[in-house]
């Protein structure tokens, strides 16, 4: 169950990062509220996962999922560059996440 919490925490991290972008520096009310609510949910889910997953592993996986998802959505939603090197390094983050899961 802890790994499910951690995966959901990573997904919610993506959600608050995207909402933060849409909030324009907390100047738009609905995206700002969304970012804060989803941040709290993300931290709660991370805390639940920490009951049985070591903090170093959990934090690395949580941020890795957030990095990958936010970067991919940045490419899709905000026309950020999708260069070969950028995609390669995102792939390396994925390898790291999988490696951490396999070695736990």
Automatic annotation (TrEMBL):
InterPro entries: EmrE-like, Small_drug/metabolite_transptr, Small_multidrug_res. The chain crosses the membrane at residues 29-47, 59-78, 84-103. It is a multi-pass membrane protein. Keywords: Cell membrane, Membrane, Transmembrane, Transmembrane helix, Transport. It is found in: Cell membrane. Its main location: membrane. It holds the Pfam family Multi_Drug_Res. Signal peptide: none annotated. Belongs to the drug/metabolite transporter (DMT) superfamily. Small multidrug resistance (SMR) (TC 2.A.7.1) family. Gdx/SugE subfamily. This is Guanidinium exporter. It comes from Parasutterella secunda. The lineage of its organism: Bacteria, Pseudomonadati, Pseudomonadota, Betaproteobacteria, Burkholderiales. The gene is sugE.
